[in-house]
Specification:
Layout lengths: L5 H10 L9 H8 L13 E2 L14 E9 L8 E8 L5 E6 L6 E5 L12 H11 L5 H18 L7 H10 L5 H18 L10 H35 L11
Antiparallel strand pairs: 1-2, 2-3, 3-4, 4-5
Helix pairs in contact: 2-7, 3-4, 3-7, 4-6, 4-7, 5-6, 6-7
């Protein structure tokens, strides 16, 4: 049901032109994990990153495994490429660089980042910590679920269990029915960890990523997109000089 990544769903929506207000792509990328910033550093024997984009460990050791140079079919756009391996989780990162100065200009995958001010600070902090804790999946699940809890509270849903508040949010059309079903999956995973259910298996990094992806999607739906629409309406009003059309009498 959720085979497409959030970024892919977003691109599909944008391509289909379902949004009348102009999309703030920077804001979208800030929450979906991308970034408009050019990666820093040079292509060397090691890659300097604050966190591994795969396991989230801080100050990871990335050692170069491979390097080669490429050009386009017409010999333009020369680049050198390096593949680096995280010594903790074994995940690899591909970097492209300028062949003359070896400055890194591309990185795949990029490190995730949450710095969208439209998201309430408490929710944003929980979500950022969850993304930084992928190397400890059980903790990441609890933090991501806490982010969801804080988002609902920010919307006025403060009474009752998380399950009941999710159900009420669906009834009030704050979130869609499909999002409600997805939220219950997140809730169950987090509940297992918070109550230390001995029968529940410990979550894997994949489980943690699934909960984090829902939290990011909910943040987009509840806060980022509405803020973008409000900005689009404000810009449109300012662009027309806030003039009200005058009807002509017949």
């Amino acid at each position: 049901m959720h085979a497409l990544t959030w970024g892919a769903c977003l691109k599909k929506a944008v391509d289909s032109k379902h949004y009348a207000a102009p999309l703030d792509i920077d804001a979208v990328l800030r929450i979906t994990g991308g970034t408009m910033a050019i990666p820093t550093g040079k292509l060397g024997s090691q890659l300097q990153l604050k966190r591994c984009p795969h396991c989230g460990i801080a100050s990871p050791l990335f050692v170069k495994m491979w390097e080669d140079a490429t050009t386009a079919c017409d010999d333009r756009n020369p680049r050198i490429w390096g593949v680096y391996k995280c010594s903790t989780c074994g995940g690899v990162v591909l970097c492209g660089a300028d062949p003359q100065f070896r400055g890194i200009t591309e990185q795949y995958p990029r490190s995730e980042n949450i710095n969208e001010p439209a998201i309430p600070e408490r929710s944003r902090n929980y979500l950022g910590q969850a993304m930084d804790s992928l190397h400890a999946p059980a903790g990441a699940v609890i933090l991501a679920a806490s982010s969801v809890d804080a988002m609902l509270k920010a919307k006025g849903y403060k009474q009752g269990t998380l399950n009941s508040r999710i159900d009420q949010a669906v009834k009030d059309h704050l979130i869609t029915e499909s999002m409600g079903k997805w939220a219950h999956e997140v809730r169950l995973d987090a509940n297992d960890q918070r109550h230390a259910d001995e029968a529940a298996p410990l979550p894997s990094a994949h489980d943690a990523r699934r909960v984090i992806e829902f939290s990011k999607a909910l943040a987009m739906f509840l806060f980022v997109f509405p803020a973008m629409v409000d900005k689009g309406l404000k810009d449109a009003t300012q662009g027309t000089g806030n003039k009200t059309p005058v009807s002509k009498s017949v």
